Amino acid sequence: MLMISHTNRTQTTFTKYTLLLLVSMFALQLSTRPAFAQEQDDESDATSQEEEEESSDKEDGEEDLEEGPSEDYEELDKLKKLEEEALQVKMLDSENWNPELLAPYRGVMASVRYEAGVIHELHGLPTAAPRGAALCEHPAVKARFDRTLVLGKSVPTSEPEIRAYLDFFDGRGKPTLVRWLRRMGYYEEMILETLKEEGLPEDLIYVAMIESGFSPTAKSHASAVGVWQFIQTTGEAMGLRIDRYVDERRDPVKATRAAAMYLQKQYDRYNSWPLALAAYNGGPGLMNKEIDRHNSNDYWFIARQRGMYDETRRYVPKVLSVALMAKNPDIFGLEGVIKYKSWSYDVVEVENPTKLSTIAQAISSNVKELRDLNPELRRAATPPMSNKTPYMLRIPKGKSMAFIKAFDKVSKPSSEEDFFTHEVKFGESLTLLSKHYGIKKRILRAINGLDKNERMTPGDFIIIPGTKKEPTAETKKEHEVVLVPAASFDYGDSKKHYIYTTVAGDKVEDIARAFGLNPADIAIWNAVDIGAKLREDMHLQLYLDADKEFESLAIHDASSYKVVAYGSDEFKKLSIAKRAARRKRSSGRRYHKVRPGQSLWTIARRHRTTVKKLKRLNPKLRRSNTLQPGDKIRVK
Length: 636
Known about the structure:
alpha+beta; Membrane-bound Lytic Murein Transglycosylase D, Chain A; three-stranded antiparallel beta sheet; two-stranded antiparallel ribbon; elongated
């Protein structure tokens, strides 16, 4: 039976079946700071716009709603749960307890006993070879650790957080560490080469290990993505392309380059790697606040004062601990870990958006292999590129000659598969593109992977099948009548008269912003309410600077339309003609759409006719009187 003797020398023996072992890991206690404090601190500490834009991929407020955390992130979730369990009080059966449960706590027992004053004496612990932080007590091992430099300095193994993570990764977290070390071999050569080119320490590779376990498709609950776990705003700020076709946060090569640049920026800010890593995790705004709050730029001093968020406070010790263990594999029993074969590939240029299946067939490969080499592709095809820039695609090593031989088939598809890209301008909708290019909307949705209600935004590139038809303002629309207020507006030669066609979701303020106008002017020119919603396909007249050109399909020269002012003679003539056309239509055939519960008798009564006449007008009704809701029958 285990006995616990408190500092007041009053011993208490627990029952045979349950023994409460209080192991107070004071260095890793959970912070009592409320969860919402991070958002408040970040907001109040935004000392400059630059700091806000450089907020790291761990800050709150950036959520990708289109998909949840990926399966690749489950490994990190499980590891986090193990960490949390290591902080909990343990209930042990005095007869059937597993000594391995104490593995995370080995090495910190002495500090807990003497400094926390909780445990004075433990009886019945098994005798075993030292592991984890206990290794630091051996002079020869301690000397080796002191000579092992991580990010240019010795790892401070006297720090409780470091010792705790040495215990953890040499205990319950060791299987995960082994998997990470094996997977590191896949990207190690590329990452180390990039860090060397950027003039950064090679030890920063262990940041990627802690961030994602070297999984390019890992996605956290906070929507951080890729090997280096960028959120969208930070990724885009570092030059990564993120759209419906490509997410370069998942591109190991480009993301590594972006991460190196971002880490260099943080180091230039603090000239301290512990502070730079904490800023990478929690954001520079957080670190600036903590430095000011504690009047210190010593990371370890700030950590001992319980500064920073709990996750950020754990982050740096984790990176340093795994680096120390990886650099001393013989001491921690990791020398037998066999790393994956290094990532290798050929790069080819693909000039057109092309299906991966087409490329795979041309080089005797498969789509899965191409997607594994190009994890940044969100579709099973290469993305559309602006300015006819070819896309650099990775293919299996040694397949470049096969690609070159099949180049014509891949880069120059047959006429029925020809397509081009269209850059979406303000006001352009799928309906407008469908009308302009003569292609059904469902086809455009299918080719571009658009959901039924998904809207395009200016700057998007849309794949259009067929031969390119250049947008032109000369397309005549005299048959389209645009009604405008009776007031006339004369700006001489300085302004040009245009007609803008609204799309779903348009607002007067958005239109004004897009064309550099005052919302009040648009309201006056068109007799519209600035705050009211605009319906789709409304025609608004705009007076724009004559020296500017506008390429959007949604805006045309007013001369392309029949512009009619309310109350004018032309308006009266159009009204008379419209009424005449309505009467003419009413004198011709008329149809009725059947509603639920209606019968031939009720329909005949409504339209002042008889069932017999309805059957004569609708031959199919002579064979059956059955009506289905939605059917159309002729009533005149």
